[in-house]
Each structure stands twice: as structure tokens, then as C-alpha cells.
Design a protein that fits this description.
Blueprint (H helix, E strand, L loop, with lengths): L19 H9 L6 E2 L12 E2 L21 H17 L3 H6 L13 H13 L7 H4 L6 H9 L2
Antiparallel strand pairs: 1-2
Helix pairs in contact: 2-6
Length: 151
């Protein structure tokens, strides 16, 4: 490929905060965001470390559209993308005039949504699963939902 790519903005949502500067400072100080998991809640789990973004409130980042179609992963990704777009100076007019891409890498993406959807369908029956949740059961749901959210 001879196409050129430019990274124009950075958006982060972390347990340390939501700015690249805060994240960088925390990492340089050697701070850790992980904690020891409570194994009384996790049967047969060999993983001992976990982490979360407990203070994340999607409504403070994502305004103007209903959040219901996005699961938690989608909301975090859409918020981070919003921050990246703002950081880069992109606005809705520029987005309409140019091709813009999203590159997203996740470890387990929407695994919680997928497992809950499957669990409900198997234990309570297909009529109890939410059709709204189905769109979040594909592995690229967060990227797709974020692209839709930001047009």
C-alpha cells in the first residue's frame, strides 16, 4: 500500500482519567490501575488481576442521541473517539467532506454483552433476549456503533 495515513487526534478513557497528559503522567509515576480480583465471586478463574473504569459516565461525553443502542464497550469507544476528534480539530462539516477511519483493538470487546445475551436466550428462552442487544454481539460492534454515532 502506498496510501498515507495521518493520526490527527488522541482520545483516551482510562481509570486514571480522560486526557493523554493525565494518562502519561500516571504511567511515568509508575501508578497501577489494576487490583487483585475477589475470587469468591469467580469460580475456577486463574486470573488474579483486574481493572475497571468505574467513574465513566457516558452522558458527560455523548450528547444528542440515545445511548441505548451502545453497550458499555461501545459507549467507552464512542466517547474516546469524540475526544480524539475534538483533540484533532475535526468537526461535523470536515467529517462530511473527508474519509475518516477508525482503528480499534480490544481484547474481549463486548464479551459481557455477548455472554449475557446468550445466557438469557438459553436460560429464559429466545423471547426474553433484547433485539437491541443483538447488534452488540458481533466482535466489531464497538467500532461499528462508534462509526454510526459519529457519522
Amino acid at each position: 500500500m502506498k496510501a498515507r495515513v495521518a493520526i490527527t487526534g488522541i482520545g483516551v478513557i482510562t481509570s486514571f482519567g480522560d486526557s493523554p497528559e493525565i494518562l502519561h503522567s500516571a504511567l511515568c509515576r509508575g501508578e497501577k490501575a489494576s487490583y487483585r480480583l475477589d475470587h469468591s465471586r469467580l469460580e475456577d478463574c486463574s486470573c488474579t488481576q483486574g481493572g475497571s473504569i468505574s467513574s465513566f459516565e457516558p452522558e458527560s461525553y455523548l450528547k444528542g442521541k440515545p445511548l441505548r443502542p451502545l453497550d458499555r464497550t461501545g459507549r467507552i469507544v464512542a466517547a474516546a473517539a469524540k475526544l480524539a476528534l475534538e483533540n484533532s480539530g475535526w468537526n461535523p462539516d470536515l467529517l462530511r467532506k473527508h474519509d475518516v477511519g477508525l482503528v480499534l483493538g480490544t481484547m474481549f470487546g463486548s464479551a459481557h454483552t455477548i455472554s449475557e445475551f446468550d445466557r438469557r436466550g438459553l436460560t429464559e428462552g429466545p423471547s426474553y433476549v433484547s433485539p437491541m442487544d443483538f447488534a452488540n454481539t458481533v466482535l466489531n460492534a464497538a467500532a461499528g456503533q462508534t462509526a454510526i454515532w459519529h457519522n
